[in-house]
Amino acid sequence: MINKKSIWFLTLFSLILVLSVYYITMPSELLISTNGNYTKEEEPTTNVTESTVLVALRVEAEEELLKEMENLQLILNGDGTIEEKNKAFDKMKELNMNKGEEEKLENKIKEVYNLESFVKIRNGQIEVVVKKEENDSTLANNIMRTIQELYEEEKYITVKFVK
Questions:
Q1: Could you tell me the residue range of the domain that residue 102 belongs to?
Q2: Of the candidates 122, 134, 116, which has an alpha carbon nearest to the alpha carbon of residue 95?
Q3: CA distance 47 to 64
Q4: Which of 13, 84, 98, 131 fits a 20 to 30 Å CA distance from 35?
Q5: Would you say residue 81 lies in a domain?
Q6: What is the per-residue pLDDT for 37?
Q7: Within 13 Å, how many C-alpha atoms sit on residue 155's CB side?
Q8: How many domains does the chain have?
């Protein structure tokens, strides 16, 4: 019978093996060009674009969601009570529904206002981050109204602008 330790060992071993093969088969010119051209006078520069902020927020939210889903999956697969398993299942269902709602709201903002955005729903509160140069309170109010129209009960909605 395969236990959890064996599965973790095989998973990590496979990951190490794949990374090792990738490193060995990587062209040596790539390694030399990335390590050899750096001098003290040439400071590396990073340009943060507007979409980079939204992508970072999406990645962070996705990692948080995956971690929470893994924890809930462990409860479902573990030796917990039926009540604990039901709560974990309901929480997973809620997380999936929130993810769908977030995507729907992002598409609605894109469709109505032609703006890139990131939406996070947490504890019934909706947080919207919009990619726009300047803060515009009228636009923020319009976005809040557009989102609120989709719900029967009143929601706590915040809008933040990033450059």
A1: 48-162
A2: 122
A3: 26
A4: 13
A5: yes
A6: 52
A7: 22
A8: 1
